[in-house]
Amino acid sequence: MELPEIADRRPAVDPAFGNVTLRAFRLEDAGMAVDLSRDPYVSATGTLTLNATADQAQKWIRRQQTRYPEGVGFSFAVVDNTEGHCAGFTGLWVRELPAGRAQIGYGIALSFSGRGLASDALCAVTSFAWTLPELHRTELYIEPWNTASIRTAERAGYFREGLLRSHQEISGQRRDMLLYSTVRD
Q1: Rounded Cα distance, 114 and 170, in Å
Q2: How far apart are CA 117 and CA 119, in angstroms?
Q3: What is the pTM of this model?
Q4: How do beta strands 137-142 and 101-108 pair?
Q5: Over the chain (185 residues), what is each successive 10-residue block's mean pLDDT?
Q6: What gap in Å lies between CA 60 and CA 77, rounded to an integer?
Q7: How do the domains of the chain map onto residue ranges?
Q8: In degrees rounded to 5, what are phi and psi of residue 151?
Q9: Which of the listed CATH numbers 3.40.50.790, 3.40.50.80, 3.40.630.30, 3.40.50.720 matches domain 16-135?
Q10: Strands 20-23 and 73-80
């Protein structure tokens, strides 16, 4: 599948909502990536190595920095405005942009969890998503057991549409996923 053209679509102003600001990744965010890599689920669902070394974390940061130039989507560092530290990541993945759809992913490092930063980041990236005129729908795929992510989605205004049985492979096993979405008004 050919990737959609997203050149010149970066936000002119860093998206923000509530207590977070989204910005481009910097190599100094590797400490957050090391913290994030301690969460086995993050490593199972993405490209960050479990218990990453500083070098592996920097490589992950560099991959995030290539997402936009490659046309895959927009990868953002989530900055906690209270402390000014990078607390996690979020991404808007646009492979299906020609069909009017995009997917969003997010993760907050364990040392920052429980502060509502994930829902603020989801609101910020969703607001940015609506600046793409051809986008009509954003989607989240959440495993049914992941109650924290379900709460995050619902706090950010996403609606549960249903269960996708055996939707994707994670750690060598087919997994059911809940589909959450929001649509352009």
Answers
A1: 25
A2: 6
A3: 0.95
A4: parallel
A5: 75 96 97 96 93 97 94 96 96 96 97 96 98 96 97 98 96 95 94
A6: 12
A7: 16-135
A8: -60, -40
A9: 3.40.630.30
A10: antiparallel
